[in-house]
Amino acid sequence: xxxxxxxxxxxxxxxxxxxxxxxxxxxxxxxxxxxxxxxxxxxxxxxxxxxxxxxxxxxxxxxxxxxxxxxxxxxxxxxxxxxxxxxxxxxxxxxxxxxxxxxxxxxxxxxxxxxxxxxxxxxxxxxxxxxxxxxxxxxxxxxxxxxxxxxxxxxxxxxxxxxxxxxxxxxxxxxxxxxxxxxxxxxxxxxxxxxxxxxxxxxxxxxxxxxxxxxxxxxxxxxxxxxxxxxxxxxxxxxxxxxxxxxxxxxxxxxxxxxxxxxxxxxxxxxxxxxxxxxxxxxxxxxxxxxxxxxxxxxxxxxxxxxxxxxxxxxxxxxxxxxxxxxx
Length: 328
Fold this sequence. Notes:
Number of strands: 12
Strand order of the largest sheet: 2-1-3-4-6-5
Shape: globular
Largest sheet: 6 strands, parallel
Number of helices: 11
CATH class of the largest domain: Alpha Beta
Order of helices and strands: HEHEHEHHEEHEEEEHEHEHEHH
Number of domains: 2
Strand content: 15-25%
Oligomer: single chain
């Protein structure tokens, strides 16, 4: 199953709940959304799939109202860049109401959005802006990789309730879910949103370096681990799913690491990787033998030119270059 098919199948399952509502721009058939995630949904549930005007603030405002009245909306924001247009509704309204009214008001809603670069969509359709929402009280932020089952995580978020920001890297949509190659894959932890670890070696042997990332990093980590294995470098990758909170599973996986490299496609500075590095230093200082490495996209706009985009964003080649520098 491909990443996009997993999300679509989960949405179809979610919509079997008569409280569920789906809303967004251009989501009706035959178009089915910019990335075809909602294809077939409006034909099957014509009364509960709603196409909206081009107003992201209105989409989330309406979804919040629906949730407060007992419905279970899933709202699609066509590109993650446009989350800035509905930040007020998310940060100052939806996430606050349950606490403001001592739990008497509930806002069970999911905000889905494709994020990330790699398709030449340019400065306003290619960003990874999740760092603008991390640390927001009562906001769950989920970013599945293709080593996860994204549909399963979406279903878990729907069951869990509350406000969830569900970020899908657009480069993962056409990929088949990772089912193993020369790498060993396993879930880490027993929570609703577990991390996944990929290894290019027998876990009983020492690990030279651990890569840490989330979401679209998986498409870079898989070839990186295979390239490192060819050079007899024992490497693992931890792919987090819930990025709005620090996971104890991450700490367990990194505790015995010789070296740690945290990779984050967001622009450099004040982002998820910053918080992960600070968290790991706080917990692992007595055990660390090498400084923790970080790799981010450039702190600049993302060019439309594919060649220039490659220079600006994180790539597998940059990960390998960074690893070699850390191994020297």
